[in-house]
Write a structure and sequence with these properties.
Layout (H helix, E strand, L loop, with lengths): L24 E6 L5 E7 L7 E5 L10 H9 L3 E5 L22 H19 L4 E6 L1 H10 L7 E5 L12 H13 L29 H13 L10 H16 L10 E6 L7 H10 L3 E6 L11 H15 L2
Parallel strand pairs: 3-4, 3-5, 5-6, 6-7, 7-8
Antiparallel strand pairs: 1-2, 2-4
Length: about 325
């Protein structure tokens, strides 16, 4: 990593039980609007292609060490990055736990910059994409225009938001209003202002696997600068605008690669019914359900993760 950026970007942080995958090295990406992003990639000998991991909101590369290692052992090169405002990438606010995203075009800039500066020049084709949650929506946005990938697999993608007991019209009104009156950086009601902690495992909607949950929270305890709090009004407003576009254009858009969407039957973070409607309307999009999985399929129990990898290999033919 460029030493001049050491004050901006957090170095990769391996810990006991979550070691650095073989050959993984850090890199720096500069976006079109000047943000500095933390990226990482590994290229094994005689790779079968490259898996590009596009991670979710609040994620950080260290959480994906195990999955990166799984793909490397399957013979793939792997490349990934932290979106702006999270992980080891540059933040918008002095309070690092606020996300600071106002429009998903900022995420588009992050992804395009990563692809053009790291993946396309340095990683071996063919390219396969795996997008999780928010990363799945960003990947869909890219696939409307880009021909980078042979195939794409989405893990619990953000295609609809589960807002619980809140009426959606009220949610849309508040998310549109608060940024206009200068309150967009406020956290949504009921959302934590701090990253996940070990005590949050009980009743969590992310994974039923305690070991993998604690692996992530232990990394945050060791390197708290990687964490981010809950969504802000600005972030959810940006997400809702992007979702309206994606949902309304599902039947007319031509995605530039075949897509498999894998959802968890016990997901309470994203709206699975919205995902089903999207998959039914969109051309070239298939749907698979893992009934026992919660939202973070690749951080679930081994039996659930194995189902995801089986679906990936069958779909990609790789």
């Amino acid at each position: 990593m460029d030493q001049a950026l050491a004050h901006l970007l957090t170095p990769l942080t391996p810990l006991p039980g979550n070691g650095l995958p073989e050959g993984l090295k850090g890199a720096t990406v500069t976006t079109r609007d000047g943000r500095k992003l933390r990226a990482a990639y590994a290229i094994p000998g005689s790779p079968r292609g490259t898996v590009v991991l596009v991670c979710g909101r609040g994620d950080f590369i260290e959480r994906w060490f195990e999955t990166i290692g799984d793909f490397i052992r399957r013979g793939f090169a792997v490349a990934t990055f932290d979106f702006r405002g999270q992980g080891g990438s540059q933040r918008a606010y002095e309070d690092r736990y606020r996300d600071g995203v106002r429009h998903f075009s900022e995420y588009d800039d992050d992804f395009t910059s990563f692809m053009t500066q790291i993946v396309l020049p340095d990683c071996p084709p063919p390219f396969y994409a795996v997008g999780h949650s928010t990363g799945g929506l960003v990947l869909l946005r890219a696939l409307e225009r880009r021909t980078w990938f042979e195939r794409a697999v989405l893990s619990a993608p953000l295609i609809g938001v589960d807002v619980g007991i809140w009426p959606m019209p009220l949610v849309r009104f508040m998310c549109a209003l608060f940024p206009k009156i200068g309150l967009g950086r406020l956290f949504l009601p009921g959302q934590s202002k701090r990253p996940l902690a070990p005590s949050n495992f009980a009743g969590n909607n992310l994974t039923s696997d305690r070991r993998r949950f604690l692996q992530a929270t232990n990394t945050l305890a060791e390197q708290p600068d990687l964490g981010v709090g809950g969504p802000t009004f600005s972030w959810l407003n940006a997400a809702l605008r992007s979702l309206r576009h994606m949902q309304s254009h599902a039947a007319s858009v031509t995605f530039r690669a075949p897509i498999l969407v894998v959802v968890g039957g016990r997901d309470r973070v994203v709206d699975n019914e919205a995902t089903r409607r999207f998959c039914n309307a969109a051309s070239g999009v298939s749907l698979a359900v893992i009934p026992e999985a919660r939202h973070e399929i690749l951080f679930e129990r081994d039996s659930i993760r194995e189902q995801f990898f089986a679906a990936f290999e069958a779909f990609t033919g790789a």
